[in-house]
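Dear support,

Our group has been running a series of protein-ligand predictions, and this particular one with NAP is the one our PI (initials K.S.) wants archived with full inputs and outputs. We had some confusion internally about which version of the output was final, so please treat the block below as the authoritative record. The input we submitted was:
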Amino acid sequence: MLKGKTALITGASRGIGKGIAEVFAKNGANIAFTFASSVDKARAFESELTAQYGVKVKGYQSDASDFKAAHELADQVVVDFGTIDILINNAGITRDSLIMRMSEEQWDDVININLKSAFNLIKACMKTFLKNRSGSIINMSSVIGINGNAGQANYAASKAGMIGLTKSVAKELGSRNVRCNALAPGFIQTEMTSTLDENVMKNWIESIPLKRGGTTTDVANACLFLASDMSTYITGQTINICGGMVM
Ligand code: NAP
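Confirmed final output from the archive:
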């Protein structure tokens, strides 16, 4: 479904980003991906994907929250791969705390890594998309950005911001055939959620109509649809991937 396309995926050394890279490579895409500090994991993943699917894969250590670094990254990806067709703004962190105890640093880190990063990379890739008169941008939001959550005000604000950003970019770039959509995963089993208390996890799963946590492949498959030509008339939308948790 993505044969010959180049995808830039932020935060793909593990978790959902890694799952997206695997599904995209399986579907013929060349993969440029970023990570923050997992150098060994990223290098191993590079060789693994290339060997398994025969596509071009390169990992870049690049802080998505750094405006200048995002521009250098996008330029380097164009040098290495020739173009960028798909941008997945997936990199994200949590720094959970009730607002009463939340530090300015916890707030700023989450907003910068989860939300400013998407602005940085959309701006950095825009030149290429406009030149190509084509592009698909996918922003990773969360059901927490739709519903809010006690103890996650910074995270919820960053993820709600992703939805507003997505709709605005869709309106700004639609006339140039550049699409922008958001995914809002619910409870997906990755390192990010592995630190949750067992009872919290049990209660969450109990409240999900499909009675299970999501997998990274569940998210990656929706991403594949939005990145591919199967969704050429879809832009500005948010798809919840949450087993029916949010309706
Ligand atoms: P994860 O397992 O913690 O992985 C996070 C990824 O982001 C890693 O590859 C990490 O690189 C990278 N990263 C962190 N900070 C970065 C930075 N400043 N610049 C570039 N890359 C950075 O997280 P996940 O669960 O896969 O979540 C991925 C996305 O989905 C996030 O945006 C998250 O908010 C969203 N999401 C997750 C869930 C869930 O249930 N898991 C639900 C809804 C939404 P290193 O390995 O180098 O640290």
